[in-house]
Amino acid sequence: RSWAIFWHKYSTNDDPRNDSCSIDWCGCLKAARDGTPYDHTPYALPRPVLDAIKPVFDNLCSRKSLACVVDASSQNANEGCHSLVWLMSLKHKVSSGTTLEIACHLAIIIFNDGYFALGKTIQIFSEAFLIIIEMFDIY
User: Fold this and answer.
1) Whole-model pTM?
2) How confident is the model over 17-39, as a mean pLDDT?
3) Which of the residues 7, 32, 59, 102 has the least number of beta carbons within 10 Å of its own beta carbon?
4) Using CA atoms, how far apart are residues 86 and 105, in angstroms rounded to an integer?
5) Torsion-angle region of residue 37: left (phi > 0), alpha (psi -120 to 50) or beta?
6) Quick one: pLDDT at residue 39?
7) By CB neighbour count within 10 A (0-12 exposed, 13-18 middle, 19+ buried), where does 27 fall?
8) pLDDT tens-digit map of 49-75
9) Is residue 49 part of a domain?
10) Do 9 and 41 have their domain in common?
11) Residue 124 covered by a domain
12) By the 8 A CB rule, do 28 and 18 touch?
C-alpha cells in the first residue's frame, strides 16, 4: 500500500501510475470505472520531491523493515512501548497517576524483556509479600 500511495502521488495526466492503487481510495480508478474524466494535477507532488523521498519508501518497504512489524509491532520503538502503556492505562478513561506509573514500569519490563519477565517480577513481589506477612505475624 505504501508504494501505491507513492506512485499515486507520482502520477500525472500524461503519465498515470495507478496500477497499484485500490479503487477504495483512488479517484483515478473510480473515475475510470464511472467513465468520468480525472485530473491528477491537484493531487500529484512535484517529481523532484518524490525522487528525493523515494529512498525513504525503499527503506520502509524493505524486507528488513517489514520484518520488524510482521508481528503487529511498530518500526518506531517508542510507539511500541507507548502502546503497551496505553494498553494498561486507557487514554479514554481517567486513571490515577499511580496507575499510569505502574503501567509505565510494566510496559518497560515487557518492552525490554518480554512478557516472560513479568513472571520473575511477580515472583519477587510474592516473596516480598510473604516476608512482610511473617514480619508482622499476619495470617
Assistant:
1) 0.46
2) 91
3) 59
4) 12
5) beta
6) 92
7) middle
8) 888 988 888 887 777 776 666 665 555
9) yes
10) yes
11) yes
12) yes
